[in-house]
Amino acid sequence: MKRALLLIALAASSSLVLAKPDIKSPSEVVAEAKSDDWQQLNPENILKIELQTGPVYIALNPELAPNHVANIKALAREGFYTNLSMYRFVENFVAQGGDMSDKKIPQKGKKAIAAEFYHSTDSALKITPLSAVDGYAPRTGFLNGFAVGQNEAGTKTWMTHCVGSFAMARTNDINSGGTEFYITLTPQRYLDKNTTVFGQLLSGMEHVQHLDRKPVAGQAYNIIKGVTVLADVKGAPSFKRLKTNTPVFEALIAARKNRAGDWFVDRPNHTDVCSVPVPVEMEEKPGKS
């Protein structure tokens, strides 16, 4: 009788150990999001970079880097980038564009502006925290759709260098950036707070990855056909992004920490700020491609 009870106890214990946690996959979390969980993005703060193979769309972040956003919009509206190039491509690092000659003088925008490596506030700026150990910032999380880092007090906030981050290149002079931008191809967190990150790619990474790696003599090299503010583009697509200050997004973070499905045999209950991409949906206008 004791042996039978022992076997039953062991079986029950085994079933508890093998039980799968009741968790959803990231795709299931996003699929269940309601319309109120999405934010329609303002086309005034979206940049369209027209490359030879197609458009790249960038969400700008005026909250954390207002001067950089204002400057690149001014540059776009004066046509500064038309027929310039994406002149630097470093595999698994960045694609950089602008005026390789460094001789073109902006008419409305500025050639160089003061760095905005982080945004300072008198009190803690509330973010949706990741609650995870991070080697580059005391705190990480999300603010209005952007991945960010913070100091311990939450009074300094900056965008992190995740895939598709949009930032301003500079020389050794921290205030020398103004026209030369780059897009990160992989996370480059060691650059955080060393350059001004002021946007995040929404769509079009395939066109960035399609850029030529090296120039060929006698051929145009990665020409930028134009850079425009989306609000100025007739018939432009619209974008919406999952809000990052909702229970749905918190559920998405949890789903990224512990993946659902029988395939996973190890669930580390951990993720990092660059491994929680914020879902984006693009809606084309009828008759447009």
What would the principal axes of the Cα set say about the shape? globular
Mean pLDDT: 92
Biggest sheet overview: 8 strands, antiparallel
SS strand fraction: 25-35%
What can you tell me about this protein's structure?
The longest helix has 17 residues, at 2-18. With 289 residues, this protein is of the alpha+beta class. The chain is built from five helices and 16 strands. β9 (146-150) and β10 (156-159) form a beta hairpin. The strands form three sheets. The chain has an eight-stranded antiparallel sheet.
In short:
The chain contains five helices and 16 strands. It is α+β, with helices and mostly antiparallel strands. The strands form three sheets. An eight-stranded antiparallel β-sheet has the order 4-5-12-11-13-3-2-14. Strands 6-10-9-8-7 form a five-stranded antiparallel β-sheet, with no helix packed on it.
Features:
5 helices; alpha+beta
SSE layout:
Elements: H1 2-18, H2 26-31, E1 38-40, E2 46-51, E3 54-60, H3 66-77, E4 85-90, E5 94-98, E6 119-120, E7 128-129, E8 139-143, E9 146-150, E10 156-159, E11 165-168, E12 181-184, E13 196-203, H4 205-209, E14 224-229, E15 238-242, H5 247-257, E16 280-283
Antiparallel strand pairs: 1-15, 2-3, 2-14, 3-13, 4-5, 5-12, 6-10, 7-8, 8-9, 9-10, 11-12, 11-13, 15-16
